[in-house]
Amino acid sequence: MIITSVAQASRFSLKNEQVDTTDFSITSPVSLNVYPAKLNNGSGPGRIYINAMRIGGVPITLPLLFDTGSAGVTLDALKIFPPELVDEHGFKFKKGQDTLTYKGIVVTRTTVQKVYGSAGAVETKEFGNIGFATLMVGDQTGALNLRKMPVMFFYAKSTNGKESTNGLGSVFGVNTTFNTVTGVNERTTFNLVSPLKYLNYRNGLIPGFKLSALQLFGCAIKIPGSCRPSRSLTVGLTNADFQKYRFNQLTPQATAQTGQVSGHFPTYPELPLYHPEIAAAIATESQQIPVSVLLDSGNPGVVLNASSEDLHADQYPIIKLMLPFGQTYFYNQRRANFSTRFNPSSKRSVFGIYFFTVFGFAEDYQNGRIGLNRTAN
């Protein structure tokens, strides 16, 4: 899922907010259930979800879109806060109040809007505020506690400029970069990075995660118990993982300014930032084009930064993604599941959810690498 953001900031301070000093650490890899779903009981797009069990001090069951195409957490405020604190028009600050607190959650007056989707796609905007909260994800068979982090609490959204109750919900963005916020200061992030960076990795664990190849099942994610769990996510990498996955080195990214939040709250561990794309090529039987590719579990389709004419796609419907180390991925662009858009003006190609039904995927936050493990094709 591809994101751009704009924000309007106000001055605030969290200096009087008690900092949680709990050591949120793991000493060995932690396996968690995710929910690979073909929405609308099989007729809708494919998605992967992870369950939020607690936000701050609020117990909850809230599916979060597990998204390798973005970084940072967005949460549906209307499902977390009582109506006297927020409604579809925004948070209800009292006169002179810079922050709002509720059961261990802090919400600031800094308003943010995020835009999901790239050129030519359906554009979804979410409107909300920057806040801070601890987060527990998983279920009764295994859970992970993440220390207090900046998040976006959204209360309204629109699709192609019209108010909407559909579209994207809460997001758990895990890629190797950050979500840039523009409109306050170019390259301002508010530390909206992967929530898995708000975790202490001990005993030689390498910061990152791996996600085994998934099978999508038709279900209704909004109905608890409808979607079947899959023990496919492991947080924390070991040296053994580097024997199983083919790791691709990413390009380092300059550290961005963090905005007015910086200095008021603990930032994520000092892990480097990397561009999340890897070098690859897309090809048909008659043509091959080098590309940078984003592997995006939050995208239900495929975006190719080439024209249909360049690839002779009308004549050759089979698209081949040629990855490093001789790994390849084939798909038929005419199949209904593989919604393909040709966008030669884009800077990168995007392969969405169905790539993750064929390849295991890993991210090494410390060394800036993406690992792939082909299981079938």
From TrEMBL:
Q: Look up the domain of life of the source.
A: Bacteria
Protein name as catalogued: Aspartyl protease
The source organism is Mucilaginibacter achroorhodeus
